[in-house]
Write a structure and sequence with these properties.
This protein has about 350 residues and is an alpha/beta fold. The protein has 16 helices and 7 strands.
């Protein structure tokens, strides 16, 4: 089983949202922002909400560039050679502030939280006169990671919004935000992409990947191009094969086999999160397909091992193990063994 997980070389480097000129499948959300500007109904704060990897941050930077360039045209696409595009991509535009989780050099990973020191500069920034006479824009990316003090600091900003300033709050889990923060933002939901725009996105983002592998990524990524690129660059296809092996073996995942899986994932920092995500994706996909009567033979066999509603408890238990392991920097090897024990019903 471990041999299925041997990683291949990464095939692409995904562009950062501030550098990404491409946005797929979010025409409705883009049009809503354009209408708000054109109609003079620009809200001071927007909550861009939806699953990871579907283009929320990419849309936020796309909108920021367009607004800072004077809102030219009826679509937000700005040429990559445009001076505003270049300055936003370089992080040097005087009227744009980005707040997100900082990199922890000791742990060599993103910090678990956005802290109050990260948020305190927003109010001062938004109340300054725009350097170029237009708008001032703040992008708060990953807002679900705000700790309590940071959330309270953000709330004070939202309670006293300045003119000609806009705050774009990007969140994959908006339910974690304070209700008072959500109530002061205009919500802009973004949805996972349909198969056609997903195929177009991956053709553009992964042009050198063989079509059969792109098709497999489309099935695994559940409408999220960013997730598909992460899987392609993070050995996701090999890990998906490992997940298939685990699910096909159920309920026979004993302790020795669980440790073998954990050992197979030990060489890559990101493998734990990817494996656990794919494990839950495989479970939810099988349960959904079985509930709708369209399950494959493998999905039907898996779903039949427990009542369908019991799989919900398993899914949440796996999510809790992953969340606590990553949040508190626990032993990932032991977390995988514990997760597979839950999965096998031990």
């Amino acid at each position: 089983m471990a041999s299925r997980s041997e990683p291949a070389e990464p095939v692409v480097e995904a562009p950062a949202p501030r550098e990404n000129a491409l946005l797929f499948g979010q025409d409705a959300a883009e049009a809503a922002l354009v209408r708000a500007v054109r109609g003079g109904r620009m809200h001071h704060a927007w909550l861009l909400a939806g699953p990871d990897g579907i283009g929320k941050a990419t849309l936020a930077f796309r909108f920021a560039r367009w607004l800072l360039a004077g809102a030219p045209g009826e679509r937000m696409a700005l040429d990559a050679a445009h001076p505003v595009f270049r300055r936003v991509a370089a992080g040097t535009h005087a009227d744009l502030l980005t707040v997100e989780r900082e990199w922890d050099p000791k742990r060599k990973r993103l910090r678990g939280e956005i802290v109050v020191e990260d948020v305190r500069g927003i109010a001062d920034f938004l109340h300054r006169t725009p350097a170029e006479g237009g708008w001032r824009v703040v992008i708060l990316d990953g807002a679900e990671h705000l700790n309590r003090n940071a959330a309270n600091a953000l709330l004070k900003v939202l309670e006293e919004p300045p003119s000609r300033a806009v705050l774009l709050v990007v969140a994959s889990a908006p339910g974690r935000l304070l209700a008072t923060i959500r109530s002061r933002c205009r919500r802009l939901p973004l949805a996972p992409l349909d198969p056609e725009p997903m195929a177009a996105a991956l053709a553009a983002l992964l042009p050198d990947l063989p079509a059969p592998e792109r098709a497999r990524l489309i099935a695994l990524a559940e409408g999220a191009p960013g997730r598909a690129v992460d899987l392609a660059t993070g050995h996701g296809l090999a890990l998906a094969s490992l997940v298939e092996d685990v699910l096909a073996a159920l309920p026979a995942v004993d302790t020795a086999r669980a440790y073998a899986v954990a050992d197979a994932l030990a060489g890559e920092e990101s493998s734990f999160g990817t494996f656990m995500d794919l494990l839950r994706t495989g479970l939810s996909g099988a349960v959904r397909a079985a509930g709708r009567g369209g399950a494959s033979e493998a999905q039907a066999r898996l779903a039949a091992l427990r009542p369908l509603d019991a799989w919900t408890d398993v899914w949440h238990a796996l999510a809790k193990i992953q969340d606590e392991t990553e949040r508190f920097h626990l032993d990932k090897r032991q977390a995988i063994v514990a997760g597979l024990a839950v999965l096998a019903g031990a």
